[in-house]
Queue: 2 jobs
Job 1
Amino acid sequence: MGADAPVAAVERTAIKKVSVRLVPFVALMFFVNYLDRTAVSFAEPNGMGADLALTAAQFGFASGIFFLGYIVLEVPSNMALHRFGARRWLARIMVTWGIVSLLFTWVDSSGQLYTLRFLLGVAEAGFFPGAILFLSQWVPSRHRTKILGLFYLAQPLTTVLGAPLAGWLIGHHGLFGLEGWRLMFLFVSIPAILLGVIAWFYLIDKPADAKWLTPDERDWLTDALATENARKVGHDDTRDQHAKGDLRTAFGSGRVWVLALVYFGFVYGLYALAFFLPTIINGFQDQYDTTFSVMDKAWITAIPYLPAAVVLFFWTRHATRHGTRTWHVAGPAVVGGVSIPLALSMGSPAATIAVITVTACSIFAALPVFWSVPSRFLTGAAAAAGIALINTAGNIAGFAAGYITGWLKDWTGAYYVPLYLVGFFMLMSAVLMIWLSARNRTADPASGTDQEPMEALR
C-alpha cells in the first residue's frame, strides 16, 4: 500500500464507497423482496379475503406456506450463491420471484393462492441470507453491524412506503378491468424483474474486482478480509470446531443452532405483525364503531414502522461505536416480549398502535445487530450454510406465525392469545441470547475483558 495513503484514511474511504455503491442497491432489492412477500397482507382485508372466501386460518396458512417453499431450497440456494457468485445468483432469484409474484394478479381460488405462495417461497429461497452473506464478504467484522443496519433499514421502510403505495394501487379498482388488490400485485411484481436484470450488470462479487475502488482501497479490503478469515480458520475450538469452512461444521455447531432459535423468536414476532396488522386495523372499525378508508388503513399500518426505522439506525450506530454487546440483542427482545401482549388491551386504536410501535422498534433494533454475530465465527462454505440454516429457522417461524396466529384467532375469536404467544417467543430469544453469551464467556474467561463481548461467540 502506498505511503501516501495512510491506512486509516484508506479504510474510511473504502467503507464509505461500499456503503454508497452497494448497500443502497442491495437494500432496494430487499425492499422489493419484502414488499412482494407481504403484499398478501394488504390484499386480504381489501377484497382478496372476501373474493376468495378466506377464513383467518386459511389466510394464515396462505401467508405461512410461503416459508415452506423457502425452507426447501434455503441452504442449497446459499451454497449455490457461494459457488456461482452473488451477482448471478441474486439476479436469478429476483427475476424468478418477480414472475411468480406477477401470477397473483390472476389467482381465483384458495388452492391457487396456496400454490403460488409456496412457489413464491421456492423462487425467493436464499435471497435474504444471500444478501447478508454478500454484504458480510465486503467489510471486516468491525464495520459489519453498521453495513447490515443500513441494509436492514429497507425492511421497516418497506411498510412505511409500501403500505401507502399498496393502498393507492388498491384504490384504483377497475383499472385494466382488475380489482384493486389484483392491480396491486401486478405493479409490485414488475420492479423485481427489472431489478434482477439490472443486478446482473451492477453487482460485483468481491472487492478485488471493484473498479470503483482505488488500488489502495482494493488492497486494504482484500487483505483485511483475508486476514480475518485466516484467523477464523486458524482458531482452535475443540467444542464444535466451528471455524473450519465446510458444510458439516455449520450443521454441527451448537452455537449456530442456538442462534437459529434466537432468530426464530424475533421472526415469529416480525411476521405475526406483518401479516396480521392490516387485518387487526381493519377490525378496529367494528371494535370501536369507526370507519377507515383504504388509504386510512394503509397509513395506520405504516405508523409503527417509521419510528422502528429511526430506532434501528441509531441502535446499530451505537453498537458499531461502542462494541456489539449481548444486551444489544437481548434488551430489545425483552421490551418486545413484554409490550406485544398489552397491545389489544389498550382500549383505543391510537393506544394499540402506540404499543405495537414499541414492539416494532424492538424487533428492528435487534435484527441487524443479531446478523453481525454468525460471521464472527464462520467463514467460507460454513458461513454460507450457517447463515442459511439460521434464516431457515426464521422461515419456520414465518410459517408458524402466519398459520398459528390465524388458527388461534379462529379458535378464540380474538388476537389476545396469538399475541401472548408472540411475547413468549421473544422472551425466549432474550433468554437464549444471554445464556449463549454467558456460556461462551465462562468457557473462555479471557473474552470477558474483550472490548466487544460478542467476540466470546468465536
Job 2
Amino acid sequence: MKDKKGYAFSAFALTALLAGCSTNNMTASTTPKETAAANKVTITAQGFKPDQKEKNDQLDQRINRFKAKFPNVDFKKDDWQYNPLEIGVKMASNSAPTEYTTYATEGKVLVNKKWVADMTDSMNSWDHAKDMNDLLSKPFVINGKTYGVPVDGYVMTITLNKKLFKEKGVELPPIDWTWDDLLDAARKISDPAKGIAGFIPMGKGPEAGWNWTNFLYAAGGDVQKLDNGKVVGQFNSEAGLKALEFYKKLKDENLIPQNWALGYGDALNAFSQGRGAMVMCGSGNAADTAINEGGISKDDLVVYPIPSLTKGGKHTGVLGGNYRVINPKADKQTQQTAFKWITDEYFTDEFLGSTQKEIEDRKGKNRVYIPQPINYWNDSSDFGKKYASLLAKYDNVFKYDPQLLSLWDGKPEAQYEAQKFYTEMANVIQKIFTTKNVDLKKTLEETSDKLQTEVFDKVKVE
C-alpha cells in the first residue's frame, strides 16, 4: 500500500540522495581514468515532470557529479513514473528507463515477468553490501538473489497520544502489547460524547484493507502463496477470521470514530486534532502530522509496534517502501554502471550533512524533525552509528522507544495484485462497520472466492 509519505520518493530521501556529492563509492579496482577509457555507456535515468524544477535541478547536479568520476557515461532522462498497469507496455516497447523506482509489492511480479535485472554480482562486490538493512532489503531478495536496492521504507506502527491517556488517568499499555491490551486501552480512552475515539483505523479506500492486513499478519496469517505457478489466496483462514473479529469488536464496542470512513489523510488529521488516542500508519508519519501540523508536543507521543495476538507473540506489521531497480534489457556493462549510479551517493558524509541541514532548518522554523525508524542502512553499521550520533545532538528530533526496533517484525506486502486485495478487504471492513450481525466467516469465504476467480487466477507467473 502507498504509505502516503514514504511510497513515492519521500521528500527527504529524495533531497538527501540528490544533494550528496560522494567521492568514496567507486570500487577499489576501478579508477576514473580506467573508466574513462572504457566503452561509452548511456543510462536513461528516471527523472521528474517538467514542472518539478527543483527536483530536476538536483538530479542534474547529481548527474554532473557522477560524470566527473565516470566520464564515459552519458545520461538521458525519462519522467515516466512506475505504474503497474504500464510497465508491461514499457518493457514490450523497449521504452522503460535503464533504472526506475518501484515499490515493495512489485518484487516477485517484476522478477517473474523478467522486468528487472539480477544485480546480485554488483551487490556482492559493493563495499557497503554488508551495511544494508536486511529487513528492508527483503522484498527484493528473491530465491537468494538481489533485484532491487531499497531507498526508504516503513514497517507499520501504532502511534499513541500520551496526553489523552494522562487526561483520562489511564496508564499506557506495555510496548510489548497484545490485541487485548489495545482493546482495553481503547475502552478506557473512548469518549464518544466528546468525539474522542479509542482507536482510529482507516475505513475508506484501499488503505482500509492495508490497515487490516497488519492484524492478519500479527495473527500468523498471509494473503497468498505461490503453488505450482499459481497464486492461491491464504487469507480465508483462522487468522483472517480472528482479524475480522477484532475489527468487529472495535465497532460493536464503539471504540472507533463515529465517522469511521476515513482515508489515510483523514485518519492522521483526526489523530493530530486529538480526536483519537491511537492511530495506525507507516512508521513515523502519524507523529510528523500530529507534531508539525497539529501542534502536539513530541513528548506527548510514542510509537508502538503492531500488537501481538497473544503475549510473547510476534509484532508483525506490513513492510513496504521504495526500491531502485534496473532494466534487464540493458547490456551487462550498462547494468553494472546503472548499479553504480543508483548506489553512488549512499553512505556518504554528504547525506549526513543534508540531514543536519534539514534538522537545523526545521529548528529555525520551530518544527520537529521526524526520522524514519527504518532506513536502507543497518543501524549497527558505522554509518548507522554516525547517523544516530547526529540525531542525538538536537533537541528538535523525535525519538523512538528503543524497544520498538527490538520488538517489531516486518512482513512484505502481498506480491501479486496487492492493491486489488486491499480494495476488496476494504469492502469487507465497511460491511462490518455498517451491518449488524454480519456473518464474518461467510463474508471472508465469499471475498476469498471472488479474489481467487477474478484476480489471482488471472495472474500469470512465469
